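Can anyone check this?
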Amino acid sequence: MLSLFVLSCADDGNTTISEVKTKVFHASLTDTKLYLDRYEKLKWNAGDFISVFGSPANEQYYFNGETGDNIGTFSNCASTLTPTYSSYYAVYPYNSETTSTKEGEINVTLPETQHFLLGQIPDNLMVAVTSSLSDDNLKFRNVCGYLKLNLFRGKKQTIKSITIKGNNNEILTGAAIVTATKNDRPHIQMKGSGRTVTLDLGEGVSLGQSVETATPFWFVLPPVEFTSGFTIEVKDMTDELAVKSTSKRVVISENTVQPINPFSVAYTYTEINGTTIDMANNLVGLVTDSSTGKGIAGVPVTDGFHYTKTDANGVYQMKADERALVVCYSLPSAYRSLLNSTTHLPQFYANDLDLAEQNRRDFVLEPIAVQNEFHLAAIGDVHIGRDLSKISTETKRYRENLLEDICKTYAAGIASGKYNENVYAITLGDLTNDNRPEQWEAYFKAIPNLTLPGSGKYLPLYNVIGNHDHRNSDEDTFGRRRNYISYLGPTNYSFNIGDAHIICVDNHSGSHNISEDDYQWLLEDIKQVENPENKLVILCGHVPYRDGGTHDGSSSASTHRADIMKALCKFHQAHIFVGHTHRVQEWINNDYVTAGGYPVYEHIHAMCGGHYWFRKISPDGSPYAYTIYSISGNEITDFQFKPGAYDTSYQMRVYDGDQTIVNPSSKSFYWYTNTVVDSSSGYYAYGNPCLKNSFVVTIWKSDTDNWKYEFWQDGKYVADLKRVPSNICDVFTASWFYGGNGGNKDCVRTDTQHYFYYTPTSGKPSQMKNWTIKAIHTIPSSKHIQHTYECSKFTTTYDEFPWN
C-alpha cells in the first residue's frame, strides 16, 4: 500500500543522501492515478519511490514533494550509474525485483494481493519514458485500469478481504512485460497465470449500511475483458464467505475507472458441517461443543415463534417468521451457555437478523457435569427510570442494594454450605418504566459483570419482558419488543438445568393476556421436553395467572389460562414465577395437579426496589427484596424471601391493632376501621373491626396451605393466629405513603392474603409481656418443616421505610 512506503533510501551503510551527487527527475501525473483526491484525481504521496532504468540496473528514486502534489521532483538514493539506454524508463511503484533486459521492455509482476487504504487505491503500475538521456521530464501513464466496487449491508458488518475472479478464468496477476515508448501509451502483456486478486483489508473495514453510504473498494487490474462477468468473495472477520457474481460483460481499460453499482453483501451457505442447506431457509447455523468442536445433535433452536432442532451434524435450519428479530437455543442440561466476554451475561442468542437474506448464527456450548442441584434468585419489577431526573440513583440502588446483595448472599451461603456453586438469577419483567432508550441504557449498565465476592465467579442473569417494557411506542406488539431485544435478546426462550426446564415467555400483549403467537410458542416449547412427567417446569412471565388473572386489576380472566395450566400439569412439579402487582403473593392453583401430585404453585414477586426506588417498602408493606429458590432434581426443595437490607430471618412485622397511627402529615389511621386517604378518588386504607384489641401480623411470603401461625408467651404455645376475614391493606404502610411519600392507589390495594391477627384475653396487646409470633413454613416438596421465623416486638416507627 502507498501508506507503507518509508521515507528512507537504500545505501551501503557508509553514505547518506547528502553525500551523494544526485540526479533529479521532474515528474508529472497528467493522466495517471496514485493518490485519490475527492474528485478521484491522481496525486503523488509523500514517500513515494520509483524505479529508474537508464540501463538494465534498477535504480531507486524518492519523491521530494508532499502528498497531493501532481508534479514534483524525484532524487536518486545512490550515485547514478552510467546509462547504456538512449532514454530513461521509470516505473511506479519501486520494486527491487522489477527488471529490464532490453531497452523499451520492463519485466514486472502484478501481485495476487493488494492492500486497502481508505480513500485511496492499491499500488498502481505506471510507466514514464524520457525523450533522451538529457531529458529529465517524466510523464507517468497508467498501465492498468481500475474496478471500483461499492459494498454495503443493512446491518453492522466488518470484512477482512475481497477476492475477485473472472468467470472465464481470465489472467489477472503474475509476470508481465510492459512495453514503453515516448509519447505513446504503455502496453502490458501478461505472462503469468494468476486468476484471482485479493484486496487485503488489514484489521477489517466496516461496511456502510445503505446504498447511500456504501463503502468503496478499488482493484487495480491489467486491461482485461471479463467476457462472462466476474465473481467476488467477501470474507468476514471469522473467515465466513459471501459470494456475489455478475454474468454481464465487464471491460477494464488502461487508465479507466469501471464502477459497479452498489450492492449488498449477503452470506449464503449451501453446506454446513456436512449438512446440505435448503436455500428456502433463511436462518441456519451450527451448535458445537467447546471441548470437542463437534456439532451437538438434538438442540432445540427457536426464532421466538417456532422451533427446529439440530441434526446429527449439529446443524439447524428453518425459514424464520417474518417478524422474527432474534434466534436462540434451548440450553441442554449437559451444557452451560458461554458468557459474553464483555458483560459476562449468558450469550445464548443472536439478535441481529436480516430476514431479507440468509442468516447464519452459530453457537458454542460448554459441556458440564449435570447440575442436579442449583439455586435461582427471582427478582420482581425493577422499573428503572420512573423519575428520569433520578435515573442514576435508581440504577445505583438496583446494582448496589439488590444485585450485589444477591451476590453477597450467594457467596456467604456457598461458604457456609447452605448453597452450592450452581447459582443463577432471573428478573420477571418491567425492567424499565416505559421502554425509553435512556432507561434501557441505564438498566444495561447495572447488570454486567456480577461477581460473587471472594470467588471471581460471575452470576448468570436471565431476564423476562414486562408490560412496561412494551410501552412508549405506537408499533405493534412485535415492534415494541425491539428495545428489549436489542439489549437483552429473546422474549421467548427456555433453558434446562438438571431436571428443571425453565421457560421465559412474554405473557402480556395487552389486557393482561398472552398473545396467540406467544401461547402457541409456549406449547411448542413444552413439546421439546422429553419425559416431562419426570421434570420440574418453572414458567417465568410477568403477569400473574392466579384466579384467572382477575386479581391483578384486569376485567376478565387471562386468555388460555386453563390450557397453560393443563400443559404445566404434564410435569412432575410446576411452579410459576411472575411479578407485575408490586405485592408479594403465594397462590396455589389447587384445581390443577401435576404428574407428581402437586398443585401448580404460583409465586408473585413484589417490586424489587420497594416503591420505585425512592422507598424501601412495596405498597403491601414488604421490604425491597428477592426470593432464592433451591432446586434438587425435579423439585423446588426450599425457598426464602430475602430482604435486601436484612437477612432471611426477617419475614414479618407485628403491629398493635389499637395503635392510632399518626403519619408525617398529622393524619390519623386505624387498623380497625377504614381511613379516607383521597376523598376525591374514593380511596380508603381498609382495616377490619376484628383488629381492635389485637396483634396484627403481616407475613409476606405466606400462603394458605403450607404455613402455621402461632402466638407464644413465656416460651409456651398459646394459640394459632387467624387470617383476617376481609381484604385489607397494610394500614401502617399506607399511612406512611399518604404522609407526603408518594401515596397512590397501589398503596391501598387489598388483593393480598398475608394478614393475620391474635386477640389476647386481656384485649390489651401493648400490655402483653414475653410474647413471640412464630411463623412455621413447610416447603411443599420437602414434607417437613424447613423454616421457623419469629418476631417479638411491635413496629411503631417508619425508620426502615425511607432510603438513606
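Reply from J.R.: I decoded it. The CA atoms of residues 20 and 785 lie 99 Å apart.
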